Amino acid sequence: MSQPSDITPELCRCQWCSNDPVYQHYHDTEWGVPEYDAGHLFEKLLLDGFQAGLSWITVLKKRDRYRQVYNGFDPHFMANQSEADLLELLQDAGIIRNRLKVYGARQNARAWLALAEQQDPAAWLWQFVGGQPLVNHFTSIRQIPTQTAEAQAMSKALKKAGFTFVGPTICYAFMQATGMVMDHTTDCFRYPLLSAG
């Protein structure tokens, strides 16, 4: 992954953000920004599932390769992957070679398409926060929960819809990443803009 050049190291960021330029770029431009595009939401939901048991930076640095092997996270492409395709993916060092996650991604693509036949997946996901960002005003990373009632409700509904790797902690991370919940701490330079609504 090429190193982002449009970051300013001296800015005050959330405490979880390291000095890694890739991480800083993600924090500065994506994390907590409301995302309403269904395709982007699908990608982020899967990426957060891939993170299970790992650090987010590990997944972030593999995101470009995931986009390549999943044809831009095209759910139709992913849903139609054969057994041979999945076995080939398990040999790809550019992604996380976890059998449950590789097979789960195909399952989630199929669940996504089934959901999309019934309704707009983006609106369906946003319903768990009432259709607009829940803005928090935490002063410290220690105050930020790992899951909430909204994340638990989303997790339960996603599991019922056939998704995997969608526990409440993963769902809350997804909600934070997509701006459904705004959890930049009050000392972060992103807080004023994203808390303004």
Which descriptors apply to this entry?
globular, disordered N terminus, two-stranded parallel ribbon, 197 residues, Endonuclease III, domain 1, single chain
Broad structural category? mainly alpha
Q: Distance between termini?
A: 32 Å
Helical stretch count? Answer: 11
* Low-confidence parts: 1-5
Q: What proportion of the residues is helical, as a percent range? A: 40-55%
Please give the order of strands in the largest beta sheet: 1-2
Secondary-structure element order, N to C: HHHHHHHHEHHEH
Instruction: Summarize model confidence as the mean pLDDT.
Output: 95
Structure description:
This protein is mostly helical. It is built from eleven helices and two strands, in the order H-H-H-H-H-H-H-H-E-H-H-E-H. It has a two-stranded parallel ribbon. Helix 9 (149-160) packs across helix 10.
Task: Compose a concise summary of this entry.
The protein has eleven helices and two strands, in the order H-H-H-H-H-H-H-H-E-H-H-E-H. With 197 residues, it is an all-alpha fold.
